[in-house]
Amino acid sequence: MVITRYDISRSDLAELLEGEPNYRIDQVWEGLHSQHREPAELTNIPKALRSAIEELLPAALTPVRQVSSDNGKTLKQLWQLGDGHLLESVLMHYRDRSTVCVSSQAGCAMACSFCATGQIGFDRHLTSGEIVEQVVRASQNAKDKRVSNVVFMGMGEPLANFENVWSAVERIHGDLGIGARKITISTVGVIPGIERLTQQDLPVSLAVSLHSANNSIRNQLAPVNRTYPLRKLSEALQSYKRSKNRRISLEWAMMAGVNDTETAGRELAEFARPLNAHVNLIPLNPTPGYDNPGTDHESIAWFQQILESFGVNATIRANRGTDIDAACGQLRAEHRVKISKRRNA
Ligand code: SAH
Q1: Which CATH class is domain 60-324?
Q2: Is 209 in the pocket of ligand 1 (CB under 6 A)?
Q3: pLDDT tens digits along 228-260
């Protein structure tokens, strides 16, 4: 496999540019990382060296499609990797922050029934460089705004690709300068991964895509629940919370008649309260393979009230980019449909 621009460490770079003085290695490293520059833009180094870097360290991501919405506040990008696989990332500007949502795998093996990526299946893990480059590209696209937050809520299950995700986190924190608390790992509940996370020093934020606090319903929505059921998940989250002293958030995509009833609210409250977790209620983005219209806005507000009455804090997440298919994996799924339509025409 080709080593791409952000796959190498600083010492690998020094080895690659053997004979160059230390300050030059620093200029290149900082230019690529803290200043998010392309090799051609490293105007403080000789031209021949710029071309050598361009050649030795190719970019991992080739833009395929870029769609913006919400008056330019949301930018969704579809990228192609060197071996042809596709992945998505989304840049979202808010009043007080700019967040990039990155993918950790091309496709996903978790097979959550309502998720566009789960419906596609698994292609491969992303390398740490392929993850870091998504943040760098977002920073370039953010122009005068600074990317302040990174969320692993794009395609893939980050804790199923632990090694690469963790070295990307260390690079994003150490070299791109984004605080650990501003980096959120979102997991469907891969317990061994949560345990490994508990062992690490950096106190990243943890979000769990719960969607149901009832094992038989959750088994249907997120088949991984059969391996890592709710009680064990809760224990793993307790240890994370205790060791990091961080509040955990629970993600809950609202599906009509599935997880928006009073019973569902009570079950969720029983799961969330001992963890003192915060709940994010997410309007469901309809996907081709899951026949549920999603809970309507009024009923989401009602469900939020129910949770509050059970002593649980919940926010309704504003849905960004629904008009540009910004649900997990949707831009890519749509791209595939277009390609196959073209082929069949
Ligand atoms: N595998 C990880 C991260 C990727 S999914 C995880 O499960 O957390 C990122 C978030 O998008 C998760 O909370 C996921 O449940 C949610 N999601 C997936 N499909 C969705 C859909 N159709 N509508 C709303 N949210 C969805």
Answers
A1: alpha beta
A2: yes
A3: 999 999 999 999 999 999 889 999 999 999 999
Return d(Cα 212, Cα 198) in angstroms, integer.
Answer: 24
Among the residue ranges 67-71, 86-90, 146-150, 322-326, the one predicted with the least confidence is: 322-326
Percent of all residues in the chain with a pLDDT value above 90, rounded to a whole number: 88
Q: For residue 203, what is the DSSP state?
A: -
Per-residue pLDDT at 107: 95
User: Whole-angstrom Cα distance, residue 1 to residue 8?
Assistant: 13
Please count the residues of the chain.
Answer: 345
Domain ranges of the chain: 3-7+16-59, 60-324
Give the tens place of pLDDT for each residue, 141-193: 998 999 999 999 999 999 999 999 999 999 999 999 999 999 999 999 999 99
Span from the CA of 251 to the centroid of ligand 1 (angstroms): 8
**Distance from residue 326's CA to the centre of ligand 1 (Å):** 11
* Ligand 1 pocket check for 89: Cβ under 6 Å: no
Question: Which segments within 188-322 are labelled E, that is strand?
Answer: 205-209, 249-254, 278-283, 314-316
The radius of gyration of the chain's CA atoms, rounded to the nearest angstrom, is: 21
C-beta separation of 179 from 173 below 8 A: yes
Can you name the CATH fold of 3-7+16-59? DNA polymerase; domain 1 (1.10.150)
Which pair of tokens denotes residue 235?
């224990």
Question: Which of 186, 205, 325, 332 has most ligand 1 atoms within 8 Å of its beta carbon, as the pocket-test mutant?
Answer: 186
Instruction: Indicate which residue's Cα is closest to atom 9 of ligand 1.
Output: 153
Cα 182 to Cα 185: distance, rounded to the nearest angstrom: 10
Q: Is 327 in the pocket of ligand 1 (CB under 6 A)?
A: yes
pLDDT at 18: 93
Decide: 101 and 151 in contact? Cβ < 8 Å.
yes
Which sequence positions are flagged as catalytic? 88, 328
